[in-house]
Specification:
This protein is of the alpha/beta class. The chain has 27 helices and 18 strands. The radius of gyration is 28 Å and the shape is globular.
Length: about 675
Amino acid sequence: MIEYSKIEEFFAPEGLFQQNFPPFEIRTSQRDLARRITRTINEKRFLIAEAGTGVGKTFSYLVPAMLYADQEEQPLVISTYTKNLQMQLAQKDIPQVAQILDLNLEIAVLMGRSNYLCRTRLQFLHQKKEQFPVRLLPQIYLWAQETEEGTFEEWSFADHPEIWSLIAADADGCQGQFCPHQNDCFVQKARRKCQQADIIVINHHLFFSDLKMQNSEEQSLLPSHQVIIFDEAHHLEQTGIDFLGTDFSQVEVIEIIGEIRDFLGRLQKEKKDGLNFATLFSALQGLEEKAQAFFFEFDRELERNNPRFIYPGWWQKLQNSPLELLESMEALNRGLVVGEEVFPEELTLALGELRNRWGKLIASLDYFLDLPGDNFVSWLEGDGKNLILRSLPLFLDDFLIQSLYPQVESLIFTSATLSINDQGAYFAENLGLPSERTDTMILGSPFDYDQQAILLIPRDIPPPQDPDFVGKSIEIFQEVFPVLGPRNLLLFTSYQMLQSFYREIEGFCEEKGVEVFVQGKRAVSQLLRDFRESPRAIMLGTASFWEGVDLPGADLTSVILFRLPFPVPDDPWISGKARELEKQGKNSFTHLMLPRAIIRFKQGWGRLIRSFSDRGILLVLDRRILTKNYGKIFCSTLPERLPIIEGSAQKLFTAGKKFWERAGEIWTEVEK
C-alpha cells in the first residue's frame, strides 16, 4: 500500500520536489494525477489518464511507481513507445526522483536483441572485412572489452552503423544455451538484471513479445509483475496489431536465396566436405524460378488492383501454386540441416543463422496458405520492386483480455492524446478494457493559451476534395505568411500532397529567402537541427511529424494543418476494419475514421506550445472544422481559452499581427 502522505509530501507547496527544483511551479493537475495513480495501484484497478502537455505526467507516475517498487517484492514495469523515452527515464528522470525520495532501487532497461552486441558474431567479424573499414577492427575489439552494457547507445562508431548490423545480437543466429559466450552475453546480462530489478523499463514492442511468449508457454523475458505503466499509450494498439501481424516478402526471399548461394559457393571454393553442392545449387535455381513465377503472377494482378485483398483459399486458382514453392523451400531447408551437422562451429553459426531466417519465411508462407478468416485482414501490395503478402489482426481486444488482464492487478495508460470528447471510451473499447475495473482521468494543459497562442481558420477556401483547394490554400498561406513568425511547421496527411504543395511554393520561398526543409530528404535529426539554426524556414512533414517533433520556444512559431487528418480510406487495414465494423452494425465513420482523425489532430496542434514561454499561431486550412457537424468535436479538443479567429485571409493576417504585437514580438515581415 502506497502512503498517500508521501505523495502530498512530494508535491506540496515547498515540498520535496520544490525544495530540490526551486524554479518548479506547483501544478495542481500534476499532484492530482499522482494521487489518482496512487489510488489506482492501491485499489488494484486500471486507469486511462490523459495529461495535456505541461502537466508533468512523468513525475506524476514515477513517484507512486517508485514508492510501490520500494516496498513490494515484485518489480513494477514501465513501457514506452520510443527508445528515447526509455533512456530518458532510466538515465535522468528515475535517478532524479530516487534521489529526492532517498530510495535505493535497482533499475533495469530491456530493449530488443538488435540493440545489444553479440560476442559470437563479433568473434567472426574479420570474415566480413570487405563490408567495413578493416582498420577499425582493433578499436572495435577494444570497445567490446570496455563496454558495460554492450548496447547501441554505448557504440563508439556512430559514423559506421553498417558495422553494428554485422555484430548486433539476432534471434536467427542465437545459439542459446549452446553459445560459448552464454555467461557473458549482453542480452542475457540485461535479462538477468531484470530478474533482480525493482523497476523495469521496456518498450511496447518488447512488451507484446513477452506477452506472446507467456501465451505460448515460452520462457518469459520479464519476472512476475503485477503493475504496468504504459507511457505513450496511444501507440499501444497499433504496436500490438503490427506485432501480431505476418509478412511474406519477395525481396526477403530473393535476398536470402542469394545469401545461401554465396555461402555455399564459398564452402565449395574452400573444398568443404559434407554437402552435395550440385544438388543444392540445382535446388536453389529451381526455387528461385518458382519464387519469381509466383510473384510475377501476382505482379500482373496488382496492375489491376493494388493493394489486392486475399481470403482463405485465395491461392488455389493460381497457375504458379505457392504450395509448390513451399515444398521447394522445405526441401532446401532439409538440405541445409545436413551442413549444420557436419561443419565446425564457425560455419555452423553462419549456416544456422541463414537456416533460421529461411525457416521463418517458410512459416510465413505456410500461414498465408491457411489464412484465418475472422478478425484478420490480409492483402498483397507492391511498389514495382517488392511484392509483399501481409496479414494483420483487425482487433487487439481479445488477445489482451485473454493474455494480460487476468494476470495483473493494476494498469495505468497515460498520454497527451487518449480521449475523444473528454472520454476514454474509444481507447478502452479498442483495448477491451474491463469497464468494471477501469477509470478515466482527463487533465488539460496548464498553459495560458489565451496569451500564448491563436487559431486562424479561413472561411474563403473550398473543401479539400475541391480541385481548387490546393491552389486556394497556397494563396491563403502566402497572404498570412508574413505573420507566421520565422519558423513554421506544415503538416500534411499524405506525402503526395506534401510534394504538390512543395512544388507550388518553392519559387515563393526562394524569393522570400526562406529555407524549405522536407521530411524524407535527410535524416530527421539533421533536418531538425538545420531547421532550428535557420533564421527563416518552413518544414514540410507528414505521418510521424504530427507527433514526433519537439521544437520548444522560438524554434517553432507556427503550425499549419493542411487538412483535417482523416485516415486514408483505401489503406488496407483501415478498409478492412471499416468493413468489419459495418458488418457488426456500427458506423465506421464514427467508430473508426473520426476518432483516429481527432487523435491525430490533437497530436498536430500539440506541436505548437510545449512550455510556458512558447508563443505561436495555429493555422487550419480546412473549413470543414467550421462547416461540418463533426467540426465541433475537433474544436472541443482545443484548449478552452484558445482564441479562434475565422474569416478572410486579410482578417487572419491582421489577427496574427496583433497577436505578435501583444506578445511583444514583431517580425520584420510585419513591420514592412
